[in-house]
Amino acid sequence: VQLQASGGGLVQAGGSLRLSCAASGRSFSTYGMAWFRQAPGKERELAAHISWNGGRTYYDDSVRGRFTISRDNAKSTVDLQMNSLKPDDTAVYYCAASATGMIQYDYWGQGTQVTVSS
Predict the structure, then answer these.
(1) Whole-angstrom Cα distance, residue 18 to residue 105?
(2) What is the strand order of the sheet 2-6 is part of?
């Protein structure tokens, strides 16, 4: 599975952005998908995860209620709608695919920069 993330950019605090991750290769619909983020000087952290059929989602406390993860298995895409953005959301965002739920992520996209100005 190859993953290509897009949609990052510069936005003011309180604004919104929508990230998209397009997958190529087979069996996209069998993978759990996630968005991770890594801020400067910090470790990469899981922001949101969605199960293979979209039936279950997980959000880190820092984004719950502001971010929404969704997927379209027919189009092999997974999106992250980010609302009420804060400067602390500034990071490189990566999409990732897991064949084992949230235990291990097997494939990673290249990352897209999100910068939130105050």
Answers:
(1) 22
(2) 2-6, 17-24, 77-82, 67-72
pLDDT tens string for the chain (118 positions)?
999 999 999 999 999 999 999 999 879 999 999 999 999 999 999 999 999 999 999 999 999 999 999 999 999 999 999 999 999 999 999 999 999 888 899 999 999 999 999 9
Task: Report residue 55 CA to chain centroid gap.
Answer: 16
- The Cα–Cα gap between 27 and 36 comes to 21
| Helix or strand (DSSP H, E) at 24 | strand 17-24
- Say how far apart CA 10 and CA 98 lie, in whole Å: 29
* CA 71 to chain CA centroid, nearest Å: 11
Residue 63 to residue 82: CA distance in whole angstroms: 8
Q: Which residues, in sequence order, are CB contacts of 33 under 8 Å at separation 6+?
A: 21, 49, 50, 69, 71, 78, 95, 96, 97, 98
**What is the C-alpha to C-alpha distance for residues 22 and 4, in angstroms, rounded to an integer?**
5
